Amino acid sequence: MFDQAMARIAGRFCRVEPRASARAYLLGLLSKAERKNCWQLAEQAGLARPGPMQRLLRYARWDADAVRDDIRAYAVEHLGTDGGVLIVDETGFVKKGHASAGVQRQYTGTAGRIENSQVGVFLAYATRWGRTLIDRRLYLPEHSWCADPKRRHAAGIPDGVRFATKPRLAWEMIAAALDAGVKARWVTGDEAYGQDPQLRAALEARGTGYVMAVACSTRVRINHGRTPVRADTVAERLPATAWQRHSAGAGAKGPRYYDWAWIHIGTSEDRHLLVRRNRTTGELAFYLCWSPAMVTLAELVRVAGVRWSVEECFQAAKSQVGLDHYQVRHWTSWHRHITLAMLALAFLTALAADAAPDRPVGTHHLARSRDPITLTVPEIRHLLAAVFNSPAVTAARLLNWSNWRRRHQATARRSHYRRRTIDEPTG
């Protein structure tokens, strides 16, 4: 299956050298390497220098967007089903300095605070067979980057790239996925995307249903569209009989049960406000929902629960295949590393789906079964790391890499000290 995955993207490389480097790069992402950057991946591959890996990300001729399209098709082939859901979300990459494309001090959920970071907007595809990332966009802040030609040029940002909000980037990815034939009747996302009326309107115009999280202060229209009211006020007025217990999907410790209520909003029967209540704390969450046809409460709950799949994708991509391990600054290099990491994750997800039982196992069976759990992405990568053994390493090769790293670090230290010396006031 690894050879099949590589064969799918082989035609995207004009020369055999970058194709071989891409294969080695992917094997490195699947390995037990501590940090999956060009230095360690080159050492993992048995190379004497990181040059081939760095050229793969920066100068080699290949189209990362075309490989991204291959990943999307690969995911649909192995995971595709009528119940598929597209999920939009963002994740942060904490960075030092100011030269990396798109970096600035901004809020990132990864750190839970404002940090110097890059932010990537991602599209995930989730079905009952698994979930994986299928598209990505690097968010480019408007004032600190889009309006600074010198900074753009230094980071290699193409002239045609203009400022786009995160919901706009999300819509571009959703539209591209639907145009490519991805089987998905639903889209879901958190408040950052659910609060955007243009994104919701675009989905409705496309005939794609959505279950989008919104703030408690969101105003909706009840009484056949005649009465505007806050979402949390609607929840306060609901009778006890309006709440129903449903599972939002299986969690690590069993089904995730919440109380749910829904109410028609607007003037049509296909628009709802969905409210989730934590059975222990009473905490509420709100979703705006629209569908091109009549649906059940259970179906809306299912889609709302699927939204957390993208967090699992981020966790797996970062912990298993080094999504955030890169040490690149250039626009092209960022997209290439992220794309190859997405391919590694899609490959692991396809293996897990291939090993899964033909039918999802019910919760009652799981409560009684003593069988091992099905193969997971982390377990498969652990097994593959043992199968794809790194080349035998001699003492000379280890010392060669040690010397190379220390010389490179000495060069960087010398540069920093010179800069500090120049910047210091003389007196």
Any overview of this molecule?
- The structure is a single chain.
- The chain is of the alpha+beta class and 427 residues long.
- Helix content is 45%, strand content 21%.
- It contains 17 helices and twelve strands.
- It has helices spanning 2-10, 16-29, 38-44, 51-58, 64-79, 142-146, 149-154, 166-179, 191-194, 197-206, 231-237, 297-306, 309-320, 331-355, 363-368, 377-387, 395-423, and strands at residues 85-94, 104-108, 113-127, 130-138, 186-189, 209-214, 219-222, 227-230, 244-251, 254-264, 271-277, 284-290.
- Strands 1, 2, 3, 4, 5, 6, 9, 10, 11 and 12 form a ten-stranded mixed sheet that branches. The protein has a two-stranded antiparallel sheet with strand order 7-8.
- α2 crosses α4.
- The protein is globular.
- It starts with a helix and ends with a helix.
- The relative contact order is 0.13.
- The model has no long low-confidence stretch (mean pLDDT 90).
Quick tags:
427 residues; alpha+beta; ten-stranded mixed sheet; two-stranded antiparallel sheet; globular
Give the overall pLDDT as a whole number. Answer: 90
Q: Tell me about the biggest sheet?
A: 10 strands, mixed
Total number of beta strands: 12
Radius of gyration: 24 Å
H and E string: HHHHHEEEEHHHEHHEEEHEEEEHHHHHH
Name the helicity range: 40-55%
Enumerate how many helices there are, as a single number: 17
**Low-confidence spans:** none
Q: Indicate the overall shape.
A: globular
Strand content: 15-25%
Roughly how many Å apart are the termini? 67 Å
- SS class: alpha+beta
